[in-house]
Amino acid sequence: MSAPVESPREGSLEAPTRYPLKWREAQFYDEKALLAELERVFDICHGCRRCVSLCNAFPTLFDLVDSSETMEVDGVAKDDYWKVVDHCYLCDLCYMTKCPYVPPHPWNVDFPHLMLRAKAFRFKNGKTRFRDKVLSSTDAVGKLASIPVVTQTVNAANRNPTLRKALEKLLGVHRSALLPEYHTRTAHRRLSGRASSIVNPEPAGRTRGRVALFATCYGNYNEPQLAEDLVKVFEHNGIAVTLVGRERCCGMPKLELGDLESVARAKEANVPALVEMIDAGWDVVAPVPSCVLMFKQELPLMFPDDADVAKVRERIFDPFEYLALRHKEGKLNLAFKKPLGKVSYHAACHLRVQNIGLKTREILQLIPGTELDLIERCSGHDGTYAVKSEFHETSMKIGRPVVNRVKQKEPDYYSSDCPIAGHHIENGLGGGRGPTHPLTLLRIAYGLT
């Protein structure tokens, strides 16, 4: 029988509490204990079903239950539990927006971190595909693909239908999935060695007025113009900008793979470099929400006793969070020169779960002649989920309501804080113009060249 499920009104009304991830303990990887916890949580989810619309993990679970002999979780084969795990891409929306049974509720349901535990178990036991290891090695792939001759070859191959069919057969990358372009002139190559034009930045509230840009692997190799847009916008607002000199992938792709030791190695490389900048008087910003979330939430939960991790957590910001904090103190430049017209704005999942509010919308709404349509729904991409052959069609289905909303509104621009989500929407729209990142929109509105 299912656990007796309370109504949402009877669930916990307190703010969600996240417990540290006990990934160093042997029990974390014990198969019997893991399967028992999966069964317990699946039983609660089956009795509730509030999260059915979020992603495909929950419909997969409920279909397994409903087609079983008992029509309860005890009728589902344990081997089929992994079908649920495969569809979770750790967006955290179930935990932060839907589930009434998260801690401090005594049922202690943390679905995303249970899925992470299952992924870590699978990785530790050598059950992870080579394809998935390659796709999550963003630094290695980016460094190779940014070599001049290699860049042209990779980009051309990604656009060639015949070669994409071969790639699908050999590696399991869906032929119809949009793949990111690579650039020889990476963000670090474009901005390295530059001196900020702001000589005497002013602190305001929590902000110091001096930021070190953590470009992120995607922002560095795939969309380096985002870093340039951020520099232009921030310095137009009197904020000094420099680069974080030493930087590796934040570790989010490896986290989603369950490769927690690689996450730890990335942390050992990144955190000292960020602490060095913070101790020198800089705040930290990053243009990709997943990377900010990694330092704000996941690393502190993996390393709860690390003072340096905690220091980075307190001084890293989403770009629009930073601008909104400055605006609160009267330090935002409001001299906009160009209206944006109609903008369809998709709020990325990994931004929404940071619990900072809709700061991008808050800033863009300040631009005269701008009509913003907010879309709070998952795009279905998740970085690697949407490019995998077995999940691409499902990812397109998840993102269809977002795509349909954009089509309906016929905006002058469509945008997402997550550049990868933006291109997934582009994939659903079926060609034509691509997304315009909110930082780029702000640069356009300021009339900055």
TrEMBL record:
Keyword DNA-binding found: no
Every Cysteine-rich domain range: 211-296, 343-419
Coiled coil spans: none
Keywords for this protein: 4Fe-4S, Iron, Iron-sulfur, Metal-binding, Repeat
InterPro entries linked: Cys_rich_dom (IPR004017)
GO MF annotations in UniProt: 4 iron, 4 sulfur cluster binding; metal ion binding; oxidoreductase activity
Pfam families membership: CCG
PANTHER family referenced in this protein's UniProt entry, alphabetically: ANAEROBIC GLYCEROL-3-PHOSPHATE DEHYDROGENASE SUBUNIT C (PTHR32479:SF19), GLYCOLATE OXIDASE IRON-SULFUR SUBUNIT (PTHR32479)
Name listed for the protein in its UniProt record: Fe-S oxidoreductase
Organism of origin: Pelomicrobium methylotrophicum
